[in-house]
Amino acid sequence: MTDDRPRQLGRTPPMGWNSWNAFSCDVTEADIRTAADALVDTGLREAGYEYIVVDDCWMATETDSEGRLLPSADFPNGMAALADYVHERGLKFGLYTSAGTKTCQGYPASLGRERLHAEQFAEWGIDYLKYDNCGDHRGRDAIDRYAAMGDALESVDREIVYSICEWGENRPWKWGRNVGGHLWRATDDLVAKWRADPDEFGLGIADALDRMADIDAGAAHGPGGWNDPDMLQIGNGPQSGQSEHEPVDVQRPLTKAERRTHFAFWCLLAAPLMIGTDLTSLSRFDRELLTNERLLAIDQDPLGIQGTPDRRDSDAEVWSKRLADGGAAVAFHNRGDAERDISTHVSAVDVAGGTGRYRVCDCWTGNEWDTGGSLAMTADPRDTAIVRVTPC
Ligand code: GAL
User: Which of 76, 210, 263, 381 is such that its CA lies 20 to 30 A from the CA of 227?
Assistant: First the structure.
């Protein structure tokens, strides 16, 4: 167990792009190069998105004779060359494997070969490892399996962000830091819809918010270690987030209001921001959403506090998050079917008191005004108004 390492990595929630939702098991080297270029061209790198992570299915079906992972034929130039390509664009490079005998799509994985694989990753120039929970666990519990890779990453001569993908099954917020993790999935896979039926695969945006409100995982969350409610589904259509083995009939992608709520809440939760869509077809609305500087400042606030609900009743929700400047981000979320006014007061959210006067900034419009304490916003159905409140 490695709970005493200096935590230089992940001081703010990691930001980047992951291949899974957009390319699933069909991902190729060309897709990754294109994504790296697109992250630069769209201005997303400039906004702070820096990791390009190749998810499942990059590896060949067989290892070498000593158990090393080999890239598949879809990565003809190998992972070191791809890491170089990503690094040359001022970005960082990540790979995926699993804490079992196989990945979720049945490729060779890392249980029992942690040191060997961590050495490979370091040699290739990897900066981020997503470590999944599929395959045979050989009777070993989650903490033991995730600690083995944490120790292996600690032993190599390269700084590698360790992203634990255990789906929140064994409350990884209790032990993720102690096994060297910089982020840990707190939820099942997120899919591009508002709500998932209970017997469907994955969680919708509203389901994930309910879960984040319920699990009380905020205590472990902060600089160096983050609860992860999964990749951003902004830009994704009905089938994204699914593998060919898990068909699901989703009626429609997220509306603009739902996408705004999704992004506002991931920032309010100080969640890792890993984009999950094909960047070559990003709409203007989605690009502007993902690069909203006021929201990104809330996500990346140095205090690193996870926002929590102050009020969840009658379809009106108020959530807030304390910020390093003594102010707070306050979200007004409408769960209902009709536009509604939602109000609260600075005394009911976590704002440093004393001055009696507060500056309010609407994170969507940039409009600013002063208040003596009352806060009232209007939100469309399933939409979220979000403001930054600062003591004057
Ligand atoms: C799931 C994981 C997804 C994705 C997928 C790949 O277990 O939660 O984010 O990595 O495996 O097969």
Answer: 381
